[in-house]
Design brief:
The chain is α/β, with parallel strands linked by helices and 237 residues long. The protein has helices at 15-26, 38-50, 65-79, 102-130, 151-171, 206-217, and strands spanning 6-10, 30-34, 54-57, 84-87, 133-138, 176-183, 227-230. It has one domain (6-230): 3-Layer(aba) Sandwich (Rossmann fold). The protein is globular and about 50 Å long. Bound molecules: NADP nicotinamide-adenine-dinucleotide phosphate.
Length: 237
């Protein structure tokens, strides 16, 4: 289905990004794996290669413009084009405003919102040149619903939803399709250090979100999916 397509996936080392990379590779895409931890990315790349797929590892801190430029340049040098960007990297921190650490708060905004801006900005020139491309931003129901002790995360995701809508309008006439995918709780390492999190057994699996992203990418030209919300069977946990 994605033969000859090149997909850059951020946060590809774990959780939703890892599942998405594996699903895209199984569908025939050449996948570019970006996150900060090279060893974890190599593990995912090896799984893809053992299965006959193609993967490029580019360790990247997606909050840093220079690193994102290198990610885009290395992808173009290796594969010559970028068909799909999945802006998936992100971190959470769950503290009240009064108890929050300004550095942690800022990092949550950067890893979720600034990263989405930077990666989108730097993949746009090659997409605009080809008048073709898809950008999928992995947001959260926290983009639409607020939770106590989640000010940075909710602000980052709501900001990223607004960003997604602005970008979609800016590039619509250039045949670049931009989609927000907003999941409810997903059973990933995201929750590992968070006290009192919902029951992991009740959450979506990362493969559910990966399949949703694949579904968006598989839609024929001639239509745009602006936004998809997916939740566990019990809804917001
Ligand atoms: N799990 C949930 O319940 C849930 C629900 C809705 C939405 N989401 C969203 O889904 C996305 C993926 O979450 P997940 O659950 O799969 O989390 P996860 O298992 O913790 O994975 C997060 C990924 O992001 C990468 N990452 C974090 N900061 C980065 C940075 N500055 N630069 C590059 N990569 C970075 C991590 O790799 P490194 O640490 O190696 O950099 C890792 O690959 C996030 O945007 C999250 O907000 C999650």
């Amino acid at each position: 289905m994605l033969k000859d397509k090149v997909a850059v996936i951020t946060g590809a080392s774990r959780g939703i990004g890892r599942a998405t990379a594996l699903a895209f590779a199984r569908a025939g895409a050449k996948v570019v794996l970006a996150s900060r931890t090279q060893s974890d990315l190599e593990t995912v790349a090896n799984l893809i290669r053992v299965d006959g797929g193609e993967a490029l590892v580019v360790p990247t801190d997606v909050t840093q413009a220079d690193a994102v430029k290198i990610l885009v340049d290395r992808t173009l040098e290796t594969y010559g084009q970028i068909d799909v960007l999945v802006n998936n990297a992100g971190t959470g921190a769950f503290e009240t405003v009064a108890d929050s650490d300004p550095e942690v708060w800022t990092q949550v905004i950067a890893s979720n919102l600034k990263s989405t801006y930077l990666c989108s900005k730097y993949v746009l020139p090659p997409m605009l040149a080809r008048q073709s491309g898809q950008i999928i931003n992995v947001l959260s129901i926290a983009a639409k619903v607020t939770f106590k002790a989640s000010s940075a995360y909710c602000a980052a995701k709501a900001g990223a939803l607004a960003f997604t809508k602005v970008l979609a309008e800016e590039v619509r006439s250039d045949n670049i399709r931009v989609t927000a995918v907003s999941p409810g709780s997903v059973d990933t390492p995201f929750w590992a250090n968070i006290e009192g999190h919902p029951d992991l057994n009740l959450m979506l699996k990362p493969e559910h979100v990966a399949d949703t992203i694949l579904f968006v990418v598989a839609q024929p030209t001639g239509m745009v999916t602006d936004e998809i919300v997916v939740t566990p069977p019990l809804g917001i946990l």
